[in-house]
Amino acid sequence: MDAIGRILERLGLTVLLIGGAGMLMAVFLGTGDVIGTQGFGQPIAGTRELTESTMVLIVFGALAYAQIRRAHIRVELLYTRLSARGRTAMDVVADIAALLFFGLMCWQAVGEAQYSYEIGEVTDGLIEFPLVPARFILVAGTAIMIVRLTFDLITDIGHFVRRDDVESGSEPIIPDISFPDIDNNK
Known about the structure:
- The chain is mainly α.
- It has helices at about 1-40, 45-70, 75-80, 85-120, 130-160.
- Residues about 170-180 and about 180-185 have low confidence and may be disordered.
């Protein structure tokens, strides 16, 4: 089970880094487009189309990695007041709900990707940029998320059945932010 977790973490990190590279490219392209348009009256052709396509990569690149780190947003009003077993039970429910959601999303994304491939779908605009890669990235991102959620569900059920008092790995990540004492300067 640990080997699967490590493989999923490496895969998630790889997709996250590719998404980060896509975001960096979109930032530089957008900046160049604004400077070109406002400063020289010459926009960069295809900026909008390329940025639209990289959004899928950016979002779904980070989604699975956030699940690996259990860093998704949650309402902790009740969660933090429960025992470890209660939190694990809530994690199981959340895993099942997320599996249903991403399962439906993946199912629809596969159909959209197939259709996009069949018709050779491209963007509207100055440059016809193919949308097929973005459609298949959506399928891959949701598939990775489903595999990770399945792994987490099995782990959480194991913790719940064994009645582990240890946290299920879902403790919220709270950054350690410390500020220098202002009174030290006196």
